[in-house]
Every structure is written in structure tokens, then in C-alpha cells.
Automatic annotation (TrEMBL):
Post-translational events: C-terminal thiocarboxylation occurs in 2 steps, it is first acyl-adenylated (-COAMP) via the hesA/moeB/thiF part of UBA4, then thiocarboxylated (-COSH) via the rhodanese domain of UBA4.
Biological source species: Australozyma saopauloensis
Any single Gene Ontology cellular-component annotation: cytosol
Top-level lineage group: Eukaryota
Protein name from the UniProt record: Ubiquitin-related modifier 1
Lineage, broadest ranks: Eukaryota, Fungi, Dikarya, Ascomycota, Saccharomycotina
GO biological process, one term: tRNA wobble uridine modification
Pathway(s) this gene product operates in, as recorded in its UniProt entry: tRNA modification; 5-methoxycarbonylmethyl-2-thiouridine-tRNA biosynthesis
Protein family membership: Belongs to the URM1 family.
Length: 100
């Protein structure tokens, strides 16, 4: 099992009833679980209402307008969905979209 922390910032915490930080346990062996697996897990277990999934996911990946950091590094530099998750990783999802 792999234990990580998931954070929702910039108002994105609305998808998890206002809870910003989540301790997440992923099934699988070190070296075999990817960011894609984490995204799927978050959609199934952390997002409280299935109707909010499109706020977070579009076309099987994180929706445009959400900044994704893996251990404080832009996920584009880490391989995006192909990043191999390790215990202790911190994943931050921050909405950059604001109403007005």
C-alpha cells in the first residue's frame, strides 16, 4: 500500500465538502501505481458527489484550469499521468479558474 497526501486549494475543496487535505492510501506495490491511478482513486473515493467529478476530471485527466503539483513541482515536469507514485508524495490540485 502507498500512502500519500492530496490537497485541494483555490476553492477546489468544494468537491470534498470543504476538506482541503486528505490522507490517501492506494492499493498496489511501489513502482506500479501511477498518477493516473491516483486520479481515478480520488474521483471514486475523495470527491463526495459524483456530479462534481467533471469539476475535477475531463477526458480522463485533470481538467484544464487546475494546476497540479507533485511534491511542489509542476506535474508536466514529472511525466503527468505517467508519474510513478511513491509513499510520502504530496499532490496539490489548485483551481486557477475564478468567477467574476
Amino acid at each position: 500500500m502507498i500512502k500519500v497526501k492530496v490537497e485541494f486549494l483555490g476553492g477546489l475543496d468544494v468537491v470534498s465538502n470543504g476538506v482541503r487535505e486528505h490522507k490517501v492510501t492506494l492499493e498496489g506495490e511501489e513502482g506500479q501505481v501511477t498518477m493516473k491511478d491516483l486520479i481515478d482513486h480520488v474521483a471514486k473515493t475523495v470527491i463526495c458527489d459524483a456530479r462534481d467529478i467533471p469539476v475535477f476530471i475531463q477526458d480522463d485527466t485533470v481538467r484544464a484550469g487546475i494546476l497540479v503539483l507533485i511534491n511542489d513541482t509542476d506535474w508536466e515536469l514529472e511525466g503527468m499521468e505517467d508519474y510513478v507514485v511513491e509513499s510520502g508524495d504530496v499532490f496539490t490540485f489548485t483551481s486557477t479558474l475564478h468567477g467574476g
